[in-house]
Amino acid sequence: MKKILKKISAGFHQISIISYIVSSFIKSLFIAIGLVAVLYFIFWATGIYASLEAALDLKYNSPIVLVPMWAFIALFVLCFMVGFLMYFHKYKRGKSKTAFYSAVAPALGQNNKKKNG
Known about the structure:
The protein is mainly alpha-helical. It contains 5 helices and no strands. The radius of gyration is 21 Å and the shape is elongated. It starts with a helix and ends in a 9-residue tail after the last helix.
């Protein structure tokens, strides 16, 4: 996995935000695939999967398939926008500290103390 992340970083070294997004997506994808595989194996070994498959009768337009898909898309867009704002706040902001800085600085682990004088 480290080799894949190094190739991604090398390919997008001029555009660091793309590198961050793609590497975090790859990590999340591997974790999700691992979790789904473990759950499938547990359900298959205990015999629950066969009864679930027959009871749900999953099809491509089933709400059990569509609702998680649309929820994943909505969360992806939300996380992308928050990450995009935090990236530009941390690396591309000006010298002035605005109200946005005071709201986002605690999430980034930065001090939010105003200097007197």
